[in-house]
Amino acid sequence: MLSLAAVALALGAAAWIADIGGAQLGASTPLASAALPPANTPSFEDRFASASGNPAARDLGLRTLERSALSAVQIKLRDAKAMLAQKLQGDEWRSTLTDDDRHVVDERRPSQRADAIPMPRSRPAQADFSAQIASSQAYAETNPRVDNRNFFEKFTDKIRLASLTPGDGLFGKAPDLAALGYDSRTAVYDIKAKALYLPSGVALEAHSGMGALMDDPDHVDQRMVGATPPAIYDLKPREKLFHGVRALRLTPTEGTSALGRVGLLTHSYMLGPRGDSNGCVSIKDYDRFLKAWDNGEFNRLVVVPSLSGAATASQRASTDS
After folding, report:
1. E strand or H helix at 231
2. Domain containing 236 — which CATH number?
């Protein structure tokens, strides 16, 4: 009886072990099947053999590789440009420029330097004129002028001043320039008489020089303060307005000299009511003077110390022009 029970127990254990082994074998079968490649998947040789045998597929692969390589090069080029831009901003940026770039930079720099230079501050003209008048007065005090005129000359000068019509800058009567040998196109400025005579017979009040040296023919060599040097001058309009006034330029003719003084002009009163000037001929009724010029009455100006004596040939314009 016991032997039968032992046999039955052994058979049951064997059956139980057989069931567990079958279950484990069934569970491992899907894993193994999953690890294996599908039955319809081509092999390595089949895939690459077909690709090498198909030109279109091969070209597509090459273009893909080229695009990838080109993208990588563009990225590196962009990074290199960024690094170059940062380097150009440093202190040694000029050393990295080419010759053409350096030429362009050098052309731009002068204009920048010119803009950076401050312009000098303009000085008031009146202050400069006052300083010039003061210097001329100081010169006159150290070099007093002696009046060597006789009684008749002093009396004649007073009569001429008395004949001046108040406010209009006109004298009562002008000398006969034709009788003195001057042609019909020449005006005469008499320094001592303080008058400018037109060929038409009009006499205008005029001055030259500054301060104590004004209307003094003995110090015409003093620049900026002396009277207009006696000479024969051709008259031409100044290229631009002179302090807003139409001015005529005095150009010495051949054979005469302005004693090295340049920039002489005719203009209206500019340095005060007396008619002071830096050597230019300052005319009180300047509009009347310009009107005669515009009408073609004269084109030459002869400056003389005085018409009281005989005029020399060098002081006359003997021909019409």
Report:
1. strand 231-237
2. 2.40.440
Q: What is the C-alpha separation between 175 and 170, in angstroms, rounded?
A: 13
298 occurs within a structural domain:
yes
Domain limits for position 284: 170-308
Residues 268, 244 contacting (CB under 8 angstroms): no
Question: Burial level of 225, CB count in 10 A (0-12/13-18/19+)?
Answer: buried
Q: Is the pTM of this model over 0.70?
A: no
d(CA 238, CA 247): 6
Question: In sequence order, what E strands does 195-230 have?
Answer: 195-197, 203-207
Residue 280 lies in a domain: yes
DSSP code of residue 94: G
- Label residues 135-166 b or e (16+ Cβ within 10 Å = b): ebeebbeeeeeeeeeeeeeeeebeebeeebee
Q: What is the pLDDT of residues 14-47, one digit of tens each?
A: 666 555 555 444 444 444 444 455 555 555 555 5
Number of domains in the chain: 1
Within a domain: residue 263?
yes
| Tokens at 159, concatenated | 């009569």
Residues sharing a CB contact under 8 Å with residue 51, sequence separation 6 or more, in sequence order: 57, 58, 61
Residues 6+ apart with CB under 8 A from 246: 237, 238, 290
pLDDT tens string 116-159: 444 544 444 444 545 554 555 555 455 555 555 565 555 455 44
Provide the 8-state DSSP code for 240: S
59 belongs to a structural domain: no
